[in-house]
Amino acid sequence: MELSDVGMQPPGQVMSDLLRLTGSVRRALPSSNRRQYLFRTAFSAANHAAPRRPGQQQQQQDRSPESRLCLLTADLHRRQSLAIMLAAVSSLSFPLPTLAESSDAGELRLFSSQKQGYTMQIPATWEQKSKSGADVLFVGKGADVGVTVSPIRINSLREFGTVEAVGDRLLGAEKAKESTESAAMLSTSSREGAQGTPIYTYDYKVDTTRGKKRIVSTVAIKDRKLYICNGTVKCTAPGLDCDPAGGPGVVEAVEAVSQSFDVL
Q: What range(s) does the PsbP C-terminal domain occupy (predicted)?
């Protein structure tokens, strides 16, 4: 199906074709029923239409077929981009290091990728490792931080919505996973980077059938690139309270990395 065909199909068929168009994205992620289900959930959230203002319905009816087609195509791009971002943020996880590995949350060192265009501060004793799908991965005692960079069709996070609106969709996608037993958002924040780029951060806890985690995800979009800095802390006990397996200072270390993340 070509994008130009979208405006000539019934709504149900459009949604079906949206899912088919993102097949290549799903294949790029680890193939599991859980993540395919997450994609369907993300699309459902993205497909929720905002209430129309008075007169907007008549204005849309007065548009020419060519204008309506352009609007539908643009909306298709936005929905695809939102689904990709939600799936990437809530599916991004790396194997946590064992407790035998050393970590020190005190001293930080600068890491910068000129190729991909981002920078952040990393605990000096954390070890850099290779991981499929990650641009870079650092692991410490009971925690890790990984960064992914991928192309996207929009130019700014603000095109998705407010930090709260995107956070609600992200948490909903986490709760929809088959392995999730409970999830709670601790905090959301937004800031601008040194170049004025909007950056959203989400701090939340997830209790799963495979264990409990605290996740700090920082997201930015610049030059049609989606940046996700994802920090994961392993917890020792079930429930929403997180006792870091890596000991005191681990959560603070991950938060420091998140706060230092910026795009160039």
A: 108-231
Angle at 81 between CA 190 and CA 183, to 5 degrees: 55
Same domain, 127 and 188: yes
CA angle 27, 132, 21 (to 5 degrees): 20
- Give bridge partners of residue 116 from the DSSP assignment: none
C-alpha dist (Å) from residue 4 to 7, 37, 46, 117 = 7, 27, 20, 33
Average pLDDT over residues 237-250: 78
Q: Which of 80, 95, 96, 104 is nearest to 153 (CA)?
A: 80
The vertex-115 CA angle with 110 and 116, nearest 5°, equals: 80
With a pLDDT cut of 90, the percent of the chain lying above it is 46
Per mean pLDDT, which range of 54-63, 208-217, 251-260 is the poorest? 54-63
Residues 136, 205, single domain; the answer is yes
Residue 54 has pLDDT above 80, yes or no: no
Residue 160: domain span: 108-263
Same domain, 38 and 138: no
Name the maximum alpha-carbon separation found in the chain.
Answer: 67
- DSSP label at 80? H
